[in-house]
Each structure stands twice: as structure tokens, then as C-alpha cells.
């Protein structure tokens, strides 16, 4: 049976390939220190779990409306709107089986074949994959390394606009870099979108995992409400990665098209899981704050350890689960000129598993530095410290 040619255009989330590699090594008896995948080894809040049980016992196990149950859509409209200073109603919300489906559904509904689409690179690899699968032209924009962390490369964004891009994916509190935008940066991006009659997809996966202060949304900028589709997920804030629950929130005419795709692709998001999400939105703040408090301890310790290793430069992310240290000098010290070779050596010899920059989009032509990504959401503090001690020891033994 011949496989359709379009499948050659489909990429993957290669962090899962690293996970499989680590699991295979772990099966031999070697202890693995899992810094590779942004999963969470913390429990889903009890109120969420109990709500799912109740929903199952109450018979919420059949089909429901394709856009999602009304109670959850109303709660999401209120929660997302209030946190961004905006007004949404039920018709602005389409419930999804995870955060990821919003990417492909937006592209399928709004992008014509041959359209140019800007996306962050390094960034979540599914942007690039879905753009190319639907035969769009994927135009990457990167980041500029500054003393305050990585910042948007506006020169690349402006070049993409000159090439005709009318869609742009934007991931504040970025995966994998941890980069976050200042108010000035958000306003500058919004002006470009408005002035060039563009539409923006705001991937807000880590909007609710900010460790200090108040999160910022580009949808809140005047003129952006009608030009922004917000991608929402329950995976991060509520430690619900495996539950597969998210939403698209934005202009009603786009949500209508996404709802049509819901019908064609999955009929509806799992009925009883939606009641679990509803319970999360109504749960005491302490339940989610406890998750953030544990993650913050891990973040601070990991950044401290990394910056204590000669040849590594690590910024502390304001939100999310990832540290994205520059290792250019470290590679030189240890005699490596390839991040993938370096990564595999560390994994096989120490059990410390992480991803390279190349797992998050094709490296750009102007890149001269090397980076790795370490997730701290799936490893407890004791194993984090043990793994980093082995990493440091390996580096010292490998230094020329």
C-alpha cells in the first residue's frame, strides 16, 4: 500500500524520540535523569480527579456538543477574559483534546496553500510541521541573546512580513527557550500585526505558570482582540498532561470554523474530562499554587547549578518548565563540535537526558551559538541534584 506523499511533509515532536531513547537505556538498568520531556511528575489536583470520577459515575461518558460543554466554555470565557482584561462569551470558545489541536485546526481553516506563516524557531516543532503539512511556506524567526535573556528577532519578523506573511505564531514564555517579552516588545509586535493586516496565534501554554508577577497577553493590546486566537491548555497549570484538554479562544468567525473541524476530526473532546477541567477552573488557588511552588524550587536550583559550571550560561525563565543554557564554550572545552553527539555521550555515560536546540526546529543560518534544553517539570529535586552532579563530574573528566 502506497503512503500518501503529503506524509513526507509532516514533522514530529522529537523530544518524544529522546524520551524513547532514554527509556531504552533505562531498560538496561541504568538510572535515567529525565530532563528531556516537559511532562509533570506532580499529581493532578484532587478536586479535578474527584470531578472526573463523579462525571463518570453520573454517566458523562457519551457524546457531547462538538464545541464543548456549555459550562466549561462559559468558565473558560470568564477565566481567560478576566486574566487578560478582555470580554469573551461562550461563542468565543472551542474546547479541544489538548492544547496542540488548535495549531493544525487554525492552519487548516485559515491558511491557503502557498501562504507564508511566521513561527518561532527555536520553538514548538509542531508549528513548522503543520504549516508545511498543509503546504504553507514556513518562515522562521529566532531570538537575539541579550544580558536580559533571549529577545524576539524583529529583523527576521519584518523580513517575513516583506515576503507576504499574514499569519504569525507567537509563544510568549517560550518553549524551549523560556524567553518572555517585555511590554515594549509585545507592543512592537502588535503594531506590526495591526499595520500589516495580519492575524496572530498566541500559544499561551505557559501563561498560567508564571512564577512572579502578572502574565502578559498580546490579545490585551488595543486592536489585537479581533486579530488573536489564544491557545489554552490545562496540561501545565493543572498537571493534566495526559488528560488531553485545551481550548481555542478568539473571534467567533474563526471559532465557528474550528468547531466544524471538531466535528470532522474527533466529534467532541472526552465528555467527563471536560467536567474535570471545569473543576480545575473553580478549584481553590492553593491547589495550583502548590504545583508552581515546587516547580520554582526546581527552577532556581537548576539555574544555580548550571551557572556554576564553567562554559555554561543559563538565564532563569519567568515562566514554564525549561532552562535553555548556552553551551558554546562548554562544547569547546569538552572537544565536541556537534550538540547531538554531545547529548548522546552525556546520556549514555551519565543517564542525564536532555534535548538539543535542534529538536525545536531546523537551526537557522545565522546561528553561531549552541544550546540545550533541560526540563525540570518531571524530575524531583533530589534526582535533579544527583543528575547535575554526574553531569558536572562528566564534564570535568571530559575537559581538554
Automatic annotation (TrEMBL):
Pfam families: Aminotran_1_2 (PF00155). GO terms for molecular function: pyridoxal phosphate binding; transaminase activity. Its cofactor is pyridoxal 5'-phosphate. Keywords: Aminotransferase, Pyridoxal phosphate, Transferase. It comes from the Archaea. Residues 38-386 form the Aminotransferase class I/classII large domain. GO terms for biological process: amino acid metabolic process. Belongs to the class-I pyridoxal-phosphate-dependent aminotransferase family. Homodimer. PANTHER family: ASPARTATE AMINOTRANSFERASE. This is Aspartate aminotransferase.
Amino acid at each position: 500500500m502506497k503512503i500518501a506523499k503529503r506524509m513526507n511533509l509532516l514533522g514530529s515532536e522529537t523530544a518524544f524520540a529522546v524520551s524513547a531513547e532514554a527509556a531504552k537505556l533505562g531498560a538496561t538498568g541504568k538510572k535515567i535523569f529525565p530532563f528531556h520531556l516537559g511532562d509533570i511528575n506532580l499529581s493532578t489536583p484532587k478536586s479535578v480527579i474527584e470531578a472526573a470520577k463523579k462525571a463518570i459515575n453520573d454517566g458523562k461518558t457519551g457524546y457531547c456538543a462538538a464545541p464543548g460543554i456549555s459550562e466549561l466554555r462559559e468558565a473558560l470565557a470568564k477565566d481567560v477574559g478576566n486574566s487578560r482584561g478582555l470580554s469573551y462569551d461562550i461563542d468565543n470558545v472551542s474546547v479541544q483534546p489538548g492544547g496542540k489541536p488548535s495549531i493544525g485546526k487554525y492552519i487548516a481553516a485559515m491558511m491557503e496553500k502557498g501562504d507564508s506563516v511566521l513561527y518561532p524557531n527555536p520553538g514548538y516543532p509542531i508549528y513548522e510541521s503543520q504549516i508545511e503539512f498543509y503546504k504553507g511556506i514556513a518562515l522562521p524567526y529566532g531570538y537575539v541573546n541579550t544580558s536580559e535573556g533571549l529577545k524576539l528577532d524583529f529583523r527576521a519578523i519584518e523580513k517575513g512580513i516583506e515576503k507576504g506573511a499574514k499569519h504569525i505564531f507567537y509563544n510568549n514564555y517560550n518553549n524551549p527557550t523560556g524567553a518572555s517579552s517585555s511590554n515594549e516588545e509585545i507592543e512592537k509586535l502588535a503594531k506590526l500585526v495591526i499595520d500589516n493586516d495580519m492575524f496572530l496565534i498566541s500559544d499561551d501554554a505557559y501563561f498560567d505558570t508564571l512564577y512572579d508577577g502578572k502574565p502578559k497577553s498580546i490579545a490585551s493590546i488595543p486592536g489585537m482582540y479581533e486579530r488573536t486566537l489564544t491557545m489554552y491548555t490545562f496540561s501545565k497549570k493543572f498537571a493534566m498532561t495526559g488528560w488531553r484538554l485545551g481550548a481555542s479562544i478568539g473571534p467567533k468567525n474563526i471559532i465557528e470554523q474550528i468547531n466544524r473541524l471538531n466535528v470532522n476530526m474527533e466529534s467532541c473532546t472526552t465528555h467527563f474530562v471536560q467536567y474535570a477541567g471545569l473543576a480545575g477552573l473553580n478549584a481553590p488557588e492553593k491547589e495550583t499554587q502548590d504545583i508552581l511552588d515546587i516547580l520554582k524550587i526546581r527552577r532556581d536550583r537548576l539555574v544555580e547549578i548550571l551557572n556554576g559550571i564553567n562554559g555554561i550560561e543559563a538565564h532563569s525563565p519567568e515562566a514554564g518548565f525549561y532552562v535553555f543554557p548556552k553551551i558554546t564554550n562548554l562544547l569547546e572545552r569538552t572537544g565536541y563540535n556537534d550538540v547531538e553527539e554531545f547529548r548522546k555521550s552525556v546520556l549514555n555515560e551519565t543517564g542525564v537526558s536532555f534535548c538539543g536546540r535542534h529538536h525545536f526546529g531546523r537551526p537557522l543560518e545565522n546561528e553561531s551559538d549552541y544550546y540545550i534544553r533541560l526540563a525540570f517539570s518531571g524530575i524531583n529535586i533530589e534526582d535533579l541534584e544527583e543528575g547535575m552532579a554526574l553531569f558536572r563530574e562528566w564534564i570535568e573528566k571530559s575537559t581538554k
